[in-house]
Amino acid sequence: MRRRLAWQAARLHEIRAETATARTLVLDVPGWPGHLAGQHVDVRLTADDGYTAQRSYSLAAPADGDRIEVTVETVPDGEVSPYLTEVIEPGDQVEIRGPVGGWFVWRPESKAPVLLVGGGSGIVPLMAMIRVRRQADSRVPFRLLYSLRDEDHRYYAAELRRPEPGLDITYLYSRTSPPGSARPAGRLTVADLAEGGWPADFAPDCYVCGPTGFVEAAADLLLTLGHAPERIRTERFGPTGD
């Protein structure tokens, strides 16, 4: 039987800047049961008058005992994200419920090559998969296609710059490409996936995460390239979330 999820108190241990508008929150959650790469949690805030607001955020790393990480992007006029990125301080508490999700997950015992396709903050659960692979000392080859507006919006920049055997990364810029870039700025194309991804006959497991339009377009392009529908797993978020 599935465990019934309950709200748990979580205390902020540390906060790290990823970009000008994104922060990684390191939270201590006593009794945390562990989680899989690709799962997410619900975060709930309660105001002094009793009003509550909650949002879902992807887990960004494997659990370290009772310690978990989520990365949050500020959404202007949002109810939850501005507090988590601009107000909360170490020692403050929020409520957590999770882990949630069982389809969009990667397990290190899997032997198939992996293609990760992330748009914007959709990199977060994919980064959890990369970190779990590293932690497990897995030899499964990973390829990451990371689409973002420009270099200033790159999450986990220092970590992803470090060479890692078996992990190939392709950056795709939708608004402004870095000087000297061979690829002009623009949306994800079938050529991007053909060049930076795996051939369909390699039967890779494909994970696509990002805004709804990006995810739908990427999934369609993967189908065009011949990837099996059952090997394409998607996770999307809409424009109203924060």
Could you give the topology of this structure?
Blueprint lengths: L7 E10 L4 E7 L11 E7 L5 E7 L8 E7 L7 H7 L5 E8 L13 E6 L3 H13 L6 E7 L8 H5 L5 E7 L16 H7 L8 E7 H13 L7 E6 L5
Parallel strand pairs: 7-8, 7-10, 8-9, 10-11
Antiparallel strand pairs: 1-2, 1-6, 2-5, 3-4, 3-6
Tell me what you see in this structure.
- By secondary structure, the chain is an alpha/beta fold.
- The chain has two domains: 8-100, Translation factors (Elongation Factor Tu (Ef-tu), domain 3), CATH 2.40.30.10; 114-237, Nucleotide-binding domain of ferredoxin-NADP reductase (FNR) module (Rossmann fold, 3-Layer(aba) Sandwich).
- Helix content is 19%, strand content 33%.
- It has five helices and eleven strands; from the N terminus they run βββββαββαβαβαβαβ.
- It has helices at residues 81-87, 123-135, 157-161, 190-196, 212-224, and strands spanning 8-17, 22-28, 40-46, 52-58, 67-73, 93-100, 114-119, 142-148, 167-173, 205-211, 232-237.
- The strands form two sheets. It has a six-stranded antiparallel beta sheet. Strands 9-8-7-10-11 form a five-stranded parallel beta sheet, with helices on both faces.
- Helix 2 (123-135) links the parallel strand 7 and strand 8 (142-148).
- The longest helix is centred in the middle third of the chain and has 13 residues, at 123-135.
- The two termini are 32 Å apart.
- The model has no long low-confidence stretch (mean pLDDT 95).
- It holds the Pfam family FAD_binding_6.
- Keywords: 2Fe-2S, Iron, Iron-sulfur, Metal-binding.
- One of its GO terms (molecular function) is oxidoreductase activity.
